[in-house]
């Protein structure tokens, strides 16, 4: 019994997601858009029976049991917390909200409703090349997994901006290469190594402040270049360079994992390895030959393929059970949780602070929501003390 799906968002991810869901046997029951016009045109295009611009209209539909949140990041926390409170399963696109405080709200909601699915769409975890890479690491291909020395990540791709000025152009609204690509990288290195980020150092730059389509009084503030280093808790060093300056919709991604014994590398969707022995040659461990039924010129192929595999895993989680809201954990245990999302958010905050002052920053996880008005709280405390 597969659950009915509600989709929040009308962008390129939604247009790739809905055909995948239908292909796997899910029924897409409702779609939400910022404006009624956007929602209606996307619903017609994707043949979805119900559309709205009111969040509650989707969440309160009885035949919607699982929601996919693929809208602007400023609504991720609000919709996730509300959906879990009503008793719906949630798959939320990266990032987990706009800041750590929002991510913490999502974590608390997920902890409060542990019987519901609550995962972040870090789809590279489901890409076969990275599943094989992690297995090789954990099986000791490079020696003891805690003795990895370096992960080196290079991502070169075209612009992330659209035809008009929107949240993708604004750093504070979740746009830019650190949030949209770097979040995947930060999550992936923790997943592959089994280690947590302790310290971070980063440089963010916005080289392109206007384009042919986006110009005039509004400037683009979302970074299109980012390089960062992460120090992990068992000594592993991560270095990453993310570049959005290639012309056209191209995407090149290389991820090297090194130790004193050798290295593993994923290029595109293929995995190779080599050990530092005189007789050793470069090994082909996994080659990606599977073709996509639904390609996109906007979203890079590895992310789409990972998303497709994640939907397959969700199907396996729901299919063996008879009740629509029941599920089994095994197929989706590799998925990024809301806690992982908060850790990524904490790392990105440390990287932004590092960019401001040029220093290494310790990654600090929030455990309590920040005080919205510290000055007022201090005054109240002082008054209470003086009254005693």
Automatic annotation (TrEMBL):
Domain of life (superkingdom): Eukaryota
Signal peptide: none
Residue stretches making up the GFO/IDH/MocA-like oxidoreductase domain: 131-264
InterPro entries in UniProt: Gfo/Idh/MocA-like_OxRdtase_N (IPR000683), Gfo/Idh/MocA_oxidrdct_glycsds (IPR050463), GFO_IDH_MocA-like_dom (IPR055170), NAD(P)-bd_dom_sf (IPR036291)
Positions of the Gfo/Idh/MocA-like oxidoreductase N-terminal domain: 5-111
Alphabetic keyword roster: Oxidoreductase
Single Gene Ontology MF annotation: nucleotide binding
Gene3D superfamilies: Dihydrodipicolinate Reductase, domain 2, NAD(P)-binding Rossmann-like Domain
UniProt family annotation: Belongs to the Gfo/Idh/MocA family.
Protein name per Swiss-Prot or TrEMBL: Glucose-fructose oxidoreductase domain-containing protein 1
UniProt organism field: Euphydryas editha (Edith's checkerspot)
């Amino acid at each position: 019994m597969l659950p009915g799906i509600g989709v929040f968002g009308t962008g390129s991810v939604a247009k790739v997601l809905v055909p995948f869901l239908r292909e796997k046997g899910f029924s897409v029951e409702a779609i939400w858009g910022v404006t009624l016009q956007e929602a209606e045109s996307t619903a017609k295009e994707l043949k979805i029976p119900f559309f709205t611009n009111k969040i509650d209209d989707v969440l309160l539909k009885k035949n919607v049991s699982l929601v996919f949140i693929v809208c602007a990041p400023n609504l991720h926390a609000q919709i996730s917390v509300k959906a879990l409170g009503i008793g719906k399963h949630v798959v939320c696109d990266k990032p987990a909200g706009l800041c750590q405080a929002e991510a913490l709200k999502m974590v608390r909601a997920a902890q409060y409703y542990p019987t519901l699915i609550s995962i972040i769409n870090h789809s590279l975890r489901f890409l076969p090349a990275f599943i094989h890479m992690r297995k090789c690491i954990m099986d000791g291909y490079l020696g003891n997994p805690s003795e990895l020395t370096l992960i080196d990540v290079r991502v070169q791709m075209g612009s992330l901006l659209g035809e008009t000025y929107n949240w993708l152009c604004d750093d504070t609204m979740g746009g830019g290469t650190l949030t949209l690509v770097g979040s995947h990288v930060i999550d992936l290195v923790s997943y592959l190594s089994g280690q947590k980020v302790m310290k971070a150092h980063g440089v963010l730059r916005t080289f392109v402040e206007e384009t042919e389509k986006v110009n005039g009084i509004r400037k683009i503030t979302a970074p299109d270049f980012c390089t960062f280093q992460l120090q992990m808790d068992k000594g592993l060093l991560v270095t990453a360079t993310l570049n959005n300056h290639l012309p056209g919709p191209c995407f090149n991604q290389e991820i090297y994992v090194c130790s004193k014994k050798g290295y593993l590398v994923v290029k595109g969707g293929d995995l190779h390895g080599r050990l530092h022995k005189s007789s050793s040659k470069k090994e082909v461990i996994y080659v990606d030959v599977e073709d996509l039924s639904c390609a996109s010129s906007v979203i890079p192929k590895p992310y789409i393929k990972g998303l497709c595999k994640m939907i397959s895993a969700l199907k396996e989680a729901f299919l063996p059970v008879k009740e629509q809201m029941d599920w089994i954990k095994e197929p989706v245990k590799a998925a990024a949780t809301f806690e992982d999302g908060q850790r990524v958010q904490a790392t990105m905050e440390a990287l932004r602070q590092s960019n401001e002052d040029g220093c290494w920053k310790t990654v600090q996880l929030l455990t309590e929501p920040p005080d919205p008005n510290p000055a007022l709280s201090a005054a109240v405390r002082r008054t209470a003390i003086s009254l005693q």
